[in-house]
Amino acid sequence: MPDFLAENNVCGQTILQLVSRGNAIIAELLRLKDYIPQTYRLANKEDVQKYGDIIMDFSYFKIEEAQNNKIENSEQLQDFDEEFRDNHIEMINRFYLTFESIHTYITDLNHFLGELEEGFHIHQSLETIFADMEGKQLLCEALYLYGLMLLIIDAYIDGTIRERLLVSYYRYTPQRSDTQSQIDDVCKLLRDTGFNTPRKPANYPEDYFRRVPIKSTYVDIVIGHLRSDDIYGQLAVYPLPKHRSTALAHQASMLYVCLFFSTNILHSQTAIMREIVDKYFPDNWVISVYMGFIVNLSETWEAFKAAKLALNNTLETVNIKGYANSYGSSIVPLLKSTNLKLKEGNITKDNLLKDVNNIINLLRDCNFTIRWLMLHTNIKPKFDKNKKLKQLRELVLTESKFDQVQLFKLLLNTAQLELITRDIYKNLLTEKEKQWKELKEESFKSLVELSEVFSGTKPLTRIQKNENLQQWFLEISKQVESLAQDDGASSRKIVQLIQALEEVQEFHQLESNMQVIQFLSETRKCMHQMIRNMNIKEDVLITLQIIGDLSYAWELIDSFTPIMQLGIKREPTLVIKLRAIFLKLSSALEVPLLRINQAHSEDLISVSQYYSSELEIYVRKVLQIIPKMMFEKMARIIEIQTSILKELPTRLDKDKLKDYAQLNERFEFAELTHSISVFSQGMRMMKSTLVGVICLDPKQLLEDGIRKELVQYISKALHSGLIFNQRAKAEELEQRLVALGQIMDGYKRSFEYIQDYININGLKIWQEEVTRIINYNVEQECNGFLRNKVHTWESAFQSRYVPIPLYPSTDNISENFIGRLAREIIRLTDPRQSVYLDQTSSWYDIKSHKPILNKETITLVASAIEISGLVGLDRLFSFMIISNLQKLSGFLENKHTKTNSWHNILSSIQKEIGAADSAPNPLKFYQNCINRTTKIWNEFLDCVLLVGQLQLMRNLIAFHLNKSCKFNAKNLESSLRSLSKALLLDVTSGDYTPSEDLMANLSHYFDYSGLNNPFNKIYITSRCDEGYAVIVFMFVVAHLNKIFLLRQLGNINKRNSDQIDGTAFAVAVHTIIKQFHSKLNNSFIKLLSNYITQITRYNISIKASELPVEVSLAMNFLETYTNYSESSRNFLKECIPEEIYHLEQTLIAPTG
């Protein structure tokens, strides 16, 4: 029969590809279990209230039309639903495709079985495929993998969550009406089973497994072969009867899953179940189904009468005591044996060749014992809830006198022994041919030399010529020369030659000559080695691979993590030994990858990457104890550095030398430094290790571990250091910034000090990680202003190996510390409670006249959250400005449907304003307009003031950043400034248009160097309408009496309590108008100029002696407004008559 898995065998390739796909689907399910969107859990009342109308289970299908109408009729709900869809559609699609692939898998399997039945594959039927070893394995695996998918998805992705995800996919994906879509079938297959409810559902899991019918003949044949055959030929590797259950463990787990497709056997076939239990579960009841997915038969078979009855024999107390005692008592002797073998010099190439069978037997016993004890003493929260399972486990623990540390030592010894044996044996296998040639040549030369000795031609002391012996040795040498390495008969011939050499020594009385004896003994030794060389076969490595399988402990190994970490704490060099355990674990990857590799599937990379990265994360978790210990010791170093050690002055009196020496403290300081370097050295001693497809470099592991601890400490300091009281106080902000600055400086100094002792670039790591923490937190805070949010797993700043921790919100407004700091600054500098003075770049309290926030405060912020923190704060302020400008733009464009009065009033004023020139009394006309708009400005004013306030803050931050850049990177600042000017000149002249990539890269540099002028920024794009100038003009005129603009420092005390900060107001108006075409700015200035001119003329006409207050206020505002744009100032001079401008400059009374 041709090879079943040959590439030209369509039947074999079809089933192989299917099984390969099954393994890939399971890997994807295991991967996705960690990416379930938190909102789909609806874990608390807030989530239910917020998402209850858009995240629904299958009950949605009963009220589909009503629910859709409810969403469509509510603009708020519709907008929220669309935003939710945009943010989660990618993950919803991925979950659905995985769910659909399960249904496709079983459909394809049924289709393949149908083709076999119809004779589609010539000369192939179910019977012929089961007659082939590979075919039998694949058909059994195909059914087993489908059952496994169902069990895994039910265990890891709750039924209600599956339903909610499927409903979301149905609602959000328009292709659902397509005939190709299988969503109905997928929903039927994966609807909630009730598995995760407190009370186990009846007929579980048989009803679940019946949802897609499978041919009963196929199921029966699979179960029949799994019951009776050794389909993987494992019994040959485990010759002893006591190892039978371990030898057939994989087959037993397959049978366990497949029996759920034929529950009649589990319910009523007592004889068959007794046979199955006696063969597969005579001494075990906890099994690993797939990659550490553990099940306890006494729990899962509880509802099946025949299965439960058959298992009762295994679960009898006497039997359990017997097994537990036997396995528990074998740990100590096995530890002694492995310790003996691991003594240096005990396992050499020669010793291994002599003793390989004994070593394999020892390893077999070790693995067998470890497996049983790990499975039957495991502590799983699920098992502890079940009283019966808890009793069974406690009985095993008691009878085996279980000591987890001893079991770990045995696992460590076993892994080391396997690693050493495998490495030496691989070398022997590589050098086998070369070694054979050397030994053969040496034997041949020795025999030829002996022949020459007896010929008399070669003088040797007291040896007489003997032609018979000469001929005999010559003949023997020819026999040696004819030996072939691959020929089985050669080994028998070598044995005969060795006997002949022993006999010739005895019968020809050659003992008298020591030289001849030495020649003969060396030749015999070479021949013995040749026999051993012939016995070096790859089978030994395969046997080692099979008996060393640790896939059952893929999850259980975590229970040993505290022991490993405690060992590393005591002795950092333990890391070298732990490498053997990590390599033993990585061998478990063979299980899911074997078929994928055979099928040459594209899934090989993603599946191996998933399992390898899971193992890598575990290795990092174990070894994280080293950076953790280093940081614990570094905490004390920080304390000594910052609080205990005194700074040496430049001059020191001799009698004070002892006080500054601080010998005890300095000794403790040195001791801590040494212990940190010892920990780092322990990590570095581990060799580079390949786990699956990922190579673990110890230096990189150490650096990542240090980064992880640093991120934890800094994040915690930032989170707890920036929590504020509900009442804003300038003193509190200052105190918190100073305290946080000291903590950050302490970490930075210690990191700088310790970097040379652990051979890392400490300050580089510090800068990178602080910047990453800030950027991540800014990104998450800015999510509140974005429709398409950046999820944690999508963030460029979040890392799986060095994760930035997420802390719960403390004020229900801000996501994290950067938001709290930004909002605290906004509260303190509220334009209604404070005033900004351009001359000092400071905010002052209107009541106490004390400074609230100034350049020194920004310096404190920079020392607390670094320069990257200031840039992050600036970015957050930009988002807030954009958000408010969009609201203001919405008002101007009349997008707010609720504000009909706004539109009616302002549209009528727009029509009337053109006739203002002809009004007999302009003051009365404008006052009338103002009176009509008094009630519509409240929300508009709030947004305007916030924009102005934030713009001033951004300007102050840019000043500090630029100042820092000039001091710390003078050449960079000059280069960037020159480049900025050159680019602007080129762009304005039209000679050059820079690319978007270049602009994006440069803007990053400009942001950090403070070379961005916030007042010139275009934040949003909006359509321009001449009418907007009238609206803004009316807004300004309506508030002229309320704004406070300081013209002279002497009148700071003249501000009324109901006034608002005029600088923030003017900056905001400038920013709003800047977002539109420059002609709008001209229109606005013209309107205000006309206002001033008209009132002045009217004033002259009635022969008033003083300039009206409205004129002075408007001129004062325009003076401030035009400060931020040279073109505005020039245009103002054109619009206002020179006499009025001169009068305002000279005669204007101080405003109040």
TrEMBL record:
Name of the featured protein: WASH complex subunit strumpellin
UniProt-listed GO biological process terms: actin filament polymerization; endosome fission; endosome organization; regulation of actin nucleation
Record family assignment: Belongs to the strumpellin family.
InterPro entries xref list: WASH_strumpellin
Signal peptide: none
Highest taxon above the source species: Eukaryota
A cellular-component GO term for this protein: WASH complex
